[in-house]
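We emphasize that the prediction below concerns an isolated chain of 80 residues; any contacts that depend on oligomerization or on bound cofactors are therefore not represented. The input was used exactly as deposited, without trimming of termini.
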Amino acid sequence: MKGNNVVISTRIRLARNLKDYPFPGRLDENGKNKVVATIKSIGFNATYIDMQNLKKEQALSLVERHLISPEFAQSFAGKG
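Result of the prediction step, given as a token string:
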């Protein structure tokens, strides 16, 4: 239809709602690995990005595309 340009966008945010797991700041490395495995096994069609393996420029690219917040990217600054 001419003149009816529509853009649809959606985001999913997982925010600490896994029963039986403490908040991220209280997880040890083993606990973090279990959380990641649980999230990956949920089965919805999503892409998992391990922030630990990203370069600073790659994290900035995610910020520019509004996929992560600047604060989240900053927490991984200099890693990867």
